[in-house]
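Figure caption, in words: inputs first, then the predicted bound structure.
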Amino acid sequence: MKRKNNKQNIMKKHIVAKLPKVDLHCHLDGSVPLHTLKKLAIREGIDPDIMNKAVLEDTCKDLKEYLNCFDIIIPVLQTAENLFDATYETIKEISKENVRYLELRFAPLLHLEKGLSVIQVLTSVCQAIEKAMNDYDIKVNLLICAMRQHDNETNFELLKILHQFENKHLVGFDFAGDEAAFNNQKIAPVVRQAKEKGMQITLHSGECGCPHEVVEAIKLGATRIGHGVAIKDNLDALEMCLANNILLEMCPISNIQTQAIKSFEEYPIKYFMKKGILCSINTDNRTVSNTSLTKEYMILNHYINFNYREMKQVNINAISHSFATPTTKKDVYQRIITEFDSVIEAEE
Ligand SMILES: [Zn+2]
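Bound structure (zinc ion present):
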């Protein structure tokens, strides 16, 4: 890689990989390791090589084209066994780069094609989370995505089932899908009800050039915004985030691939941090975007000179604004402080 300038504070990949990290915006379906997807494809009688198409080589035209990758993955995630294996293997892989707290999200309604009920889908995923947490040094919680393209009646029904499903790992609610076609005004009644039922809310908003969608999301009670990069050109939306102490779940590589942001050099995280906006760095879809948190940080270091201190800050922001219990927050926070401080002292 060619460096932009000589004064760069170079972060080392093996150190970045070793440091404790938090990933709050990680889609289960988009993050199942490729080798696992191939194993599941064989189990389902599907040509495993088709799974290679789930990994993006480069950028795509827009968010819609990006979302097409999921059409390849979703068909192999339709049985309890496959959902369990996919969840377990995903967490195992993520724990290898020392992510200490992970919020996985997925849309249960996309996994009913072979007759599973929402409760069966959730049970399988939660059992895998429990087993993976026993086997690896990582804490995991689950966020439920409703899909923007589903009608509100369908999503009200989903909320009713979620309310019946008591599980300590189910901690939050989100809307995913095509934001341009199905905006926050359309989903507002569902989000309001989720909030009334006591769910913590994060919403994908401002991913495709619509800053007013971020304002709407905050009005609906979201405490975190998935992506949110569109607010860079809109002072009102920026101030709304500041005033409400909103955390942006930023996903650099995904944002470049969907062309939400034109180039890494223009990635607005430092601009946001200077303005006092709370930012975190996340992967979005590890397999579809061919990424990891380590890769995200190394790219930010390369293009915009992101350093260990900034990396520490965004991980503190992330754990503080996570939907974890106070005990988990405190434990992970402590590990971030201790381990980053020793690296910062040695490397600077
Ligand atoms: Zn996302």
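Residues 25, 27, 176, 204, 226, 284 surround zinc ion (CB under 6 Å).
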